[in-house]
Amino acid sequence: MTTTTHLLRSRRFLPLFVTQLLGAFNDNLYKNAMVLFVVYSIYNSQEAEAQFSAIASGLFILPFFLLSALAGQLADMRDKAAIIRIVKFCEILIMIVGGAGLFLAWQGGALASLAIPLMLAALFAMGVHSTFFGPIKYAILPQHLHKDEVLAGTGLVEAGTYIAILFGTILAGWIAVEWAAVAVVVTAIIGYFSGRQVPPAPPMIEAEPLDWNLWRSSLQVIRKTMDDRRVFLAIMAISFFWTIGAVLFIQFPPLAKNILTASKEVASLFLVIFSIGVAIGSVSINALLRGTVSARYSPASVIVMGLFVVAFYFVCRSWVPHSPDDLMDVATFVIQPLAVPLLLSLLGIAVAGGMFVVPLYAFLTTFVDKSQTARTIAANNIVNSGAMVVGSLLAVSLSMAGVDVTDQLLLSAAMCLVSAWLGRLLYKSELRATCA
């Protein structure tokens, strides 16, 4: 029996895996249903659409920046399974609010004054939900799994996350917004009952008072974590990766509509291909490394990712658009002469990205002491989210300055070089530590 099969049959892993999968599915079903409805049914301007997409991404990311230190303290000093139950119950309440916003948007009443504010408020609250769940899903792995299972477990969590993103994205693009309103509430309820099956994960250290000063606690957790050069390099490399991902995800809906003159189903197809690719990369890197946690392939992976971004850029620049009044559906889009190179370029971006980031997450969860794992992941989330907010603001600024959304792709390609440099420094530090 393989490690992967063994984990998927084990209560040490399966309930957490299913709970994370449902949460990622719900996040993306809700967010994409909202963004696609607004981009395709409310706004009629490339600049306004790109700005709304960036604002939505920024609102979801902001809680990671503000609250990750508190989330890390809780996860390290309280029973992680108990926190999961509380967080998943809150998801039900959040999705009731978000579903109400989607339903009102479908009805077409009070869009600016009620429907859109409700949807954005729920999106921000889902960011809070994910902020508190995020450190747990990684920190609980070395507590419940054996050392030689952690890389496989991390790869499965990443792959499962992107499979969930895949299905959430598909559903958001293909079902009516009123049905999405119902689906997000039902999924949250199922996720709550799944979360109740996660085995206890008591703290590995004595409980300490929580530091409720968000600024001080954030600085403290970052300072303590960044003291080690290898942890610092891993976090910085992951941060640049997610900045690239944030910029790409912001660009997809307006790029599909305005540059490729394609429908919202095609925009969903882009996210689907991206999700499939990251899932493939996440599983493939575990096979290449054979269970050993190492950044060996990370520099090459992210350079390949940058090359695929450049290829994606050139295909978009060569694309011959249809009439903007006649958006292509998926069947029409895929028979276009450049559709296959476009989708293969996107798949290459995602596969290489998955191979880059999974070993870095596994490194963070195995290198530090188990009692510090959640706060290490929290520090990573703070830096990641700060970088992603900067990426979102940069995308908004470039759109407001009139920079074409296609040209913004080159920014993502340039950032891949920085990630490769950081990955190389991490691997060199890893080799020095091995030889010492």
UniProtKB/TrEMBL annotation:
Membrane disposition: Multi-pass membrane protein
Cellular component GO terms, alphabetical: plasma membrane
Compartments, record wording: Cell membrane
InterPro entries, alphabetized: MFS (IPR011701), MFS_trans_sf (IPR036259)
GO molecular function: transmembrane transporter activity
Coiled-coil stretches noted in the UniProt entry, renumbered to this chain: none
Pfam families: MFS_1 (PF07690)
This protein's UniProt keywords: Cell membrane, Membrane, Transmembrane, Transmembrane helix, Transport
Protein's name in the database: MFS transporter
Organism encoding this protein: Allopontixanthobacter sediminis
